[in-house]
Each structure stands twice: as structure tokens, then as C-alpha cells.
Amino acid sequence: APYNEPFRPQVHFSPRERWMNDPNGLVFFEGEYHLFFQHNPLGDTPGHISWGHAVSTDLLHWHELPVAIPATDKELVFTGSVVVDEKNSSHQCENHQPCLVAIYTAHNDTPHHEAQALAVSQDRGRTWKRFSGNPVLDRNVPEFRDPGVTWNDETKSWLMVVSLPNDHKVVFYTSPDLIEWTELSTFGPAATVSGQWECPNLLKIPTADGKQSLYALKIGVNPGSLQGGSGEQYFLGTFDGHHFTQSSDPGSHGWTDYGKDSYCAISFNHLPAGEPPTLIGWMDDWQYADKLPTVPWRGQMTIPRHLALLKDADGLALQQTPVTAPIRAKSTSLVASITQPTTTLFTTDQPTELTLTIDPADAQTFGLRLYSDPAHWTEVAIDRTTMKLSTDRTHATNITAPDFPARTEAPLSPNRPLDLHLILDRSSVEVFAQNGTTAMTNLTMPTTQNLRVELFRTQGTHPLKVIGQRWTLRSVW
Ligand code: FRU
Question: Relative to the CA of 198, which ligand 1 atom is closest?
Fold first, then answer.
């Protein structure tokens, strides 16, 4: 049955069929969330890259629509943004109605060339027309891509952040009309400079109490990220209308996700007032994305995440909270206290969300083992000696894609609470720890759809106590 094949995610977006990579043009407009995505409508490996399209009213139930912007003989349609042109600043909107403008990278293979181009939709994203004056921004270089475009309320102009992948730089541009772009500044090289820099995104993030805000500059690195292959680092700081300046507070640099499978995440434009910044990423890694044995599709997105900024004794932190409220079904409280090495918490064959607060007493390492059969499991653990969170999927699956067997690690803070928040779907485990200040997303591709969740601990003799909540999540298909 459609959307019920082995490994088919039940609470994450995946295309009905064929290849998908990065999310593109996330935007809310007239009651709909739009998810465009890098898509090969003709095959299950990268090629003929076009913008696929899906819409939702709750960020979880997606309805896939026909290809929005197709590749042509002359150009592949690489990653980019969609904005709502409320006031017809581009002079491309008809009948004095707001229209949607896509700013994408027009990619040419021979000769190798990338420049930024526009397409316009007058009908809520259903059909698109390329702008006659394309490209609108060309540096005459082979690699120059992934424009993240937003309306900047402080400067009252459009702001673009776009990547020079091999220079490990992003460039900021401003425009009054989305057509004429003026360079403002560059950022980088900084922190991790291996591979290429891709998919930059600049987001304004309020503190949890809503009283302040900072900017987060998120930059994809591929290959050579912390986790191997593709991954994403962020910088927190200020943007004064010209320059992004990284904050000097501790915590102003980190990895958006410490797992292997979150890449090219971008945030929604034009969200309704009061909705927090919301991020969706590609839940995959370029190391093996085209080798995963899923049929008839390849590629899926992360769960949407609300973002906030935390400031505490440790400094700054980016907080991610998964969006699941619309699909939470049955809820069960969990209370456990263990002195023995392991105990089964529950079994299920449904997608599941779990929140746990842990008082480890004198246990050194503790966490969960997620068994799909007695010989296959994924382990999510906290080691208090090293203060690290880890996800180990080396025993999770029978699939043999290169670099898939892996254990990912993230530093934790001794001062933040020891809690875990997990989203378990048919082929993935997303972990949020310490109040969402650390995220770790990994595909697991387990051997069955059955799950036995075991709590484990090592060392110590005093009872380890867990209080938590478990929700069965309703399939979105
Ligand atoms: C990142 C990326 C982007 C590019 C797109 C092509 O995954 O390489 O830089 O625009 O994929 O599909």
C-alpha cells in the first residue's frame, strides 16, 4: 500500500515516489504551509533536479502536489527560498494581490555555473513562471548557491544569505524588489571549514520568554562535518542590517544537530504572528543517501522543530522542540525505578514520542535500547563521566550502505537537566536532550516495525528513577 512500505516514515514527510533531498522555499501563505523540495521526478538518485511541492495546514499532514518548478535542458533548479511579496515590490504580482516569489539557484553542468534566479506564482504555489530577467544575481563563478531570503523588518528590505561553497564564506545581499541585489558583507571562513559550505539560513530567534532575540546563522558543511559527511553548524549573534557578528558568549557556536541525518534545514517565511521560528531539515546524509534501500522513494524530512533561544549559566543555546501536538494519540505515564541493569519499559509497533526526566542516582551510564528484534537495537545513552549523549546504531540494521554503521556523540552540560525527548518512527530516531538544547537525528532502518524499549544503566547500586510520558503518534498518511 502507498505510504506503508518497509521503512516508510509514518510521521515524517517523504515523497510518494523517487528522489528527494533538501527542503526548499518553506513558507506559510493563506492558511497553508508549503514545503518545496529538491526532487528528481524521473528517478531515485539525484538528477533532473526540480522543485517538488507539498502543502499542509498543520506541518505534519502533507499533501503532495505536482512538481512546482521543473528542471529544463538549460538549468537544474537547486535549493532556495520562497517569499510572500505582499506589496508587489517585484512588480511581478498580478491584480494587486500578494504573490509568491521563489529565489532558487539555477545550476548548469556544462559549463559549470550557478546563479540566482526567480520564479513567480499567482495561484498559491500551484503554478510557477520563470522571471524573464533571470538570472537576477550572478557573480560569474562556478559555485554560488542556496539563497536564503527573508524580509528584514529592521531594514525594510529583502535580505539574502547565499553561499560561496569552496571559499567557506556566505555573502549577505540586500534588495528593494528581489531583482536588484547589492552586496552587504561576507561571513567566514569560521569554525568548521572542511568540504563545502551549503544551505545558509539566517533566522531571528526570540528567547524563550519572548523578550529578546538574537540571530542564528546556520550553515551546512559537506563533507567533513562533525558526524562525518553532511552536517550543520550554527553561529548565534547579531545582524545590524549589514553584518552578522558572532556573539562572544559561550554557546554561540554549535551543531544544529549532532546526529548524522539532518541537513540543509531551513525555516519558514511569513509565519503567522506569534508562531516561533520553525525548522525542517533533510533527514539524510550525502554519504549514503542514494544507497538506502527504500522503494519506491528515497529521502525524508526531519520532524518540524520550533526554535527558541535559551540563556543560562552555561551561556547561549539553541532550543529545538519537535512539533507533534496534532498527531499525539494515546498518552501513557511512565514511572520506573531500577537497580538492575535493564528493564523493559514498553513494546509497540506504532510511531512513538517519549519524554523522560531521569534521576540517575549513582548510575554512570544510562539510557534506552530500542530493539527491533533480539539481535538488533539502537542505543541512546547518557554517559555522566564524559557528559556525552550518544546514539549508537551499529547494531540497528541489516542494511550495508557505506558509513551507515555509526555512533554519534554530543557534549552535554553538567548544569542542565538530564532529560530526553524522542521521536521514534519506522526508520529514524530523533533525540532532544537537556530541554532541547542538543538535538541528535539518526536514521536507524530497523529490521522490523516492532519496538521493545528497554531502560538500562551501568554501575551504582541506588535506584535510578525515571518519570515520563509516552504518546502513540497517529500516522499522517
Ligand atoms: C545540499 C545541496 C545544495 C544544492 C542541492 C542540489 O544538499 O548540495 O547545495 O543546492 O543540494 O540538489
Answer: 9
Would you say the CB of residue 262 lies under 6 angstroms from ligand 1? no
In angstroms, the CA 53 to CA 36 distance is 4
Strands 305-312 vs 278-282: parallel, antiparallel or unpaired: antiparallel
Rounded Cα distance between 69 and 347, Å, is 44
pLDDT digits (tens, 9 = 90+) for 307-322: 999 999 999 999 999 9
Q: Which three cell numbers stand for residue 327?
A: 498527531
Q: Which three cell numbers stand for residue 134?
A: 533571470
Phi-psi region of 306 (alpha: psi -120 to 50; beta: other; left: phi over 0): beta
Asked if ipTM goes beyond 0.90, one says: yes
What are the catalytic residues? 22
Q: Which residues pair with 149 in a beta bridge?
A: 160
Reading the block at residue 202, the C-alpha cell is 539566517
Q: CB of 81 closer than 6 A to ligand 1?
A: no
Determine the distance separating the centroid of ligand 1 and the alpha carbon of 64, expressed in angstroms: 21
Cell of 24: 526548499
User: Ligand 1 mean position to 454 CA, how many Å?
Assistant: 38
- Rounded to the nearest 10°, the torsion over CA 425, 430, 433, 439 is -160
Q: How many CA atoms lie within 13 A of 253 on its CB side?
A: 9
Q: How far is the CA of 376 from the centre of ligand 1 (A)?
A: 33
Domain tally for the chain? 2
Q: How far apart are CA 445 and CA 28, in angstroms?
A: 32
Boundary residue ending a domain (290, 322, 354):
322
State whether the beta carbon of 78 lies less than 6 angstroms from ligand 1: yes
Cite the beta strand spans of 252-326 per DSSP E: 253-255, 263-267, 278-282, 297-298, 305-312, 315-322
Among 279, 294, 322, give the residue marking a domain's end. Answer: 322
> Is residue 49 a part of any domain in this protein?
yes
Query: Which atom of ligand 1 approaches the CA of 199 most closely?
Result: 9
At 111, the pLDDT band (50, 70, 90 cuts) reads very high
Give the SS3 label for residue 135.
Answer: coil
**What is the distance between the terminal CA atoms of the chain, rounded to a whole angstrom?**
11
Tell me the pLDDT tens digit for each residue of 191-210: 999 999 999 999 999 987 88
In a domain, 204, yes or no: yes
Residue range(s) defining the domain that contains residue 342 = 326-473
Residue 411 has pLDDT above 90, yes or no: yes
